[in-house]
Design goal:
alpha/beta, Rossmann fold, globular, 2 domains, 42% helix, six-stranded parallel sheet, eight-stranded mixed sheet
């Protein structure tokens, strides 16, 4: 098949959407299919073009056999609302033009987290008269409203109307978690038009290994119990809980426990300034790291922190950070309620805490730091469960089966594939 993928993010960007789509496209290409990706010039999270790239109107690239078309967008940092929406709309417009010019695909896959990327897929599918599979990784605009990034009621109502029209325009919808699937059903999307293809583990990249001496030396991790947050440091992350927990640990004399905050985002600079102002030497900010360095970093820490602000919407989320930590046999402390907590509990992969509760975070860290056998047991249990049930190659094949079926089905109903399980 000729598969056209619309995604706002793609490597060398290393965030969750880029990682997921690259892994899937690589598997589809290896299976003999013709995959083309329409994306932006890499610039996340600062809105600054990566070295070696230019924000041109139209440029071609290749990666792992995947043809990449990079289109011009209005660049904006990953913070605020208005300029980011301008960025999203500019991608939609230039992606539609690119989609009209390249060879006709058999099917289009367009992925959120921002739904103007989905709308690019809608317009290309109408122009080329081919089916669209819409992938929902984030409930938008609810997610930006939940963190207070958008308060204009008229704009919110407009975006909600566009959201409903988007769901109706797609031939089929793929979600990455049970919570999103349930939310879509509440919004009136028929169950037979929704399939669940969760995130997975690339076992060739993420596997248990000894700590990396270079990582330990660079950030002085030797002889420390290290809790790492690895990912986007955005408004939804709620990472001020780390600073409050670090202050409690320091006051209690637990100098053996350190936080490593890996990544960048809208609130990183503010958090780093607050940590410096309060003299929190037990919190280290690394800034954005290359995607290739993440396995070595995870191998060198003791436990991974997965955390989001306390909000009902985030109870539907299943963060990819859980999968990455489990693949490396690292236990997780999960400050995300709902489906994420249920999955971690079922897998025996870590400790669940109330979001934004620094007391529970401190208690979990002390319990783990004082019982290394327990740490190892959680890591092994999580690893065994996730590599068994979430192998990315298997999930990519399931996705291909879904694409074939949607291509053959006029109304997008896929009753046999509508319930691909995220957790057996």
């Amino acid at each position: 098949m000729r598969i056209l993928v619309c995604t706002h993010y793609f490597p060398p960007e290393g965030n969750a959407p880029a990682t997921r789509m690259h892994a899937l496209c690589k598997q589809w290409e290896a299976a003999g299919h013709d995959v083309t990706v329409i994306t932006c010039v890499p610039n996340v999270p600062d809105g600054i073009v990566y070295a070696g790239y230019r924000n041109h109107l139209y440029q071609r690239d290749t990666l792992d056999g995947i043809r990449i078309v990079r289109v011009w967008t209005y660049l904006a940092p990953n913070k605020g609302t208005l300029l980011r929406i301008v960025n999203y709309i500019s991608y939609m417009l230039t992606a539609v033009v690119a989609g009209a010019l390249i060879g006709k695909p058999d099917v289009i896959v367009a992925t959120s987290p921002q739904f103007f990327c989905g709308w690019a897929g809608v317009w290309i599918s109408r122009l080329r008269r081919v089916p669209l599979i819409l992938e929902i990784r984030d409930m938008w605009p609810e997610s930006i409203v939940a963190v207070g990034a958008l308060t204009n009621r008229r704009l919110i109502r407009l975006l909600e109307w566009l959201e409903k029209r988007l769901y109706a325009a797609a031939r089929h919808i793929v979600t990455v978690g049970e919570g999103y699937r349930d939310e879509l059903r509440k919004k009136g999307v028929p169950a037979a038009r929704i399939s669940l293809i969760p995130n997975g583990i690339d076992r060739d990249v993420l596997f248990p290994r000894p700590p990396a001496a270079s990582v330990c030396e660079r950030w002085e991790l030797h002889d420390q119990f290290v809790c790492a947050y690895v990912g986007t440091i955005g408004m939804a992350s709620g990472l001020d809980v780390v600073l409050r927990a670090a202050a409690r640990l320091a006051a209690g004399g637990r100098t053996d426990i350190k936080f490593l905050v890996v990544g960048d985002g809208a609130v990183r600079a503010e958090l780093e300034r607050d940590a410096a102002r309060h003299g929190l030497n037990n919190v280290v900010f690394t800034g954005r790291q290359d995607k290739e360095s993440i396995p070595a970093i995870l191998a060198s820490v003791s436990v991974s922190l997965v955390h989001l602000r306390k909000h009902p919407l985030f109870a539907t989320v299943l963060p990819s950070k859980i999968f990455e930590a489990a693949a490396m046999a690292k236990p997780v402390i999960v400050g995300v309620e709902g489906y994420a907590a249920d999955l971690v509990t079922r897998a025996g992969a870590g400790i669940c805490i109330e979001p934004e509760n620094e007391g529970q975070l401190v208690d979990a860290l002390i319990r783990l730091a004082d019982d290394r056998r327990y740490v190892e047991a959680l890591g092994r249990s999580g690893h065994d469960y996730f590599v068994t049930h979430f192998d990315r190659q298997v999930l990519a094949r399931q996705y291909l089966d879904l694409i074939r079926t949607v291509k053959r089905t006029a109304d997008g109903s896929v009753p046999l594939l509508g319930d691909v399980p995220s957790s057996p």
